[in-house]
Amino acid sequence: MKAVNEMNLTFPSRSINEGFARSVAAAFAAQLDPTLDELGDIKTAISEAVTNCIVHAYPDVIGSIKLRCRIYPDGRFEATISDRGVGIPDVEKAREPMFSTGGPERSGMGFTIMESFTDKLTVRSCPGKGTTVRFAKRIAVRAER
Amino acid sequence: MDVKIERKDSELLVSLAGELDQHAARGVMLHFRELEAQTLPERCTLDLSSLRFTDSSGIAVLLGLHRRVSDIGGSLRVVGTPQQAMKVFDAAGLRRVMKFE
């Protein structure tokens, strides 16, 4: 299916950009007329993915993060967050609840939250080359509500 | 993110206002670290009614505060949790750990 609209954003892995990225994604998703609840889910999932890039992909350097959002005719919102950081050696392990390499300041719930707040989540990672997280969220059309 | 910490007799009132993410969480945790265990009251209320957003960083912040209060045998009460935040905390099962009102 061809996207009806698309946006691309590239920004450095500074933590101040967590709020920037989720606000941009939410403003773009607003075209699908989502409920506040659906918008909250999108913002939360984007925030988790971007935070992972900042904390884990680029632990000691400022690297580049790419955010691509697409809207499909069936009301689907799709976001792709990619980095060229250190990568995840064991994606399955990283997706387990409470697993974290981030110390006591992290809860290890990032992927779990992304999974429960979106409809489909895929994680592709290559150690030394980077990680790409993609998720889809279906926004109900008004008549169905 | 605004962090307000007030002491009222035997109670500690902590209010968080704004958006709580990893960027903001570091500052919030610094505030909590400054709370002296010796003078920490046994009852602590965390007011989240002005919290506009949180992600999993908020889970670590709440667990951190809960641990500090539990360490001195106190209890933590979380009030005014907005819907978006509650959904995040429920994904982590925080209701089984602390009291939400």
CATH class of chain B: Alpha Beta
Q: Architecture of chain B, according to CATH?
A: 2-Layer Sandwich
| CATH class placement of chain A | Alpha Beta
In what order do the strands lie side by side in the largest sheet of chain A? 1-2-3-5-4
State the fourth-level CATH superfamily of chain B.
STAS domain
Number of domains of chain B: 1
Q: How do the helices and strands follow one another from N- to C-terminus of chain A?
A: EHHEEHHEE
SS content category of chain A:
alpha+beta
Question: How many DSSP-defined strands of chain A?
Answer: 5
Q: What would CATH call the homologous superfamily of chain A?
A: Histidine kinase-like ATPase, C-terminal domain
Q: Report the count of strand segments of chain B.
A: 5
Runs of chain A with pLDDT <50, length 5+?
none
**Multimeric organization:** heterodimer
Structural class of chain B: alpha/beta
Task: Give the fraction of residues assigned to helices of chain B.
Answer: 25-40%
Largest interface: A-B, 27 and 21 residues
The shape of chain B is globular
Supply the number of helical segments of chain A.
4
In the sheet with the most strands of chain B, the strands line up as 1-2-3-4-5
> What is the first-to-last residue Cα distance of chain B?
22 Å
CATH fold category name of chain A? Heat Shock Protein 90
Task: Give structural notes.
The complex is a heterodimer of chains A (145) and B (101). Chain A has 145 residues and is an alpha+beta fold. Chain A has one domain: Heat Shock Protein 90 (2-Layer Sandwich), CATH 3.30.565. Helix content of chain A is 32%, strand content 28%. Chain A contains four helices and five strands. Chain A has helices spanning 17-29, 36-57, 91-94, 110-117, and strands at residues 5-12, 64-71, 76-83, 120-126, 130-138. In chain A, strands 1-2-3-5-4 form a five-stranded antiparallel beta sheet, with helices on one face. In chain A, α1 (17-29) runs antiparallel to α2 (36-57). Chain B has one domain (2-100): Transcription Regulator spoIIAA, CATH 3.30.750.24. In chain B, strands 1-2-3-4-5 form a five-stranded mixed beta sheet. In chain B, α2 links the parallel β3 (43-54) and β4. The two termini of chain B are 22 Å apart. The mean pLDDT of chain B is 93. Chain A binds chain B through residues 15-16, 18-19, 22, 37, 40-41, 43-44, 47-48, 51, 54-55, 97, 104-110, 112-113, 116-117, and chain B through 19, 21-23, 25-26, 29, 53, 55-57, 59-60, 63-64, 83-84, 87-88, 91-92.
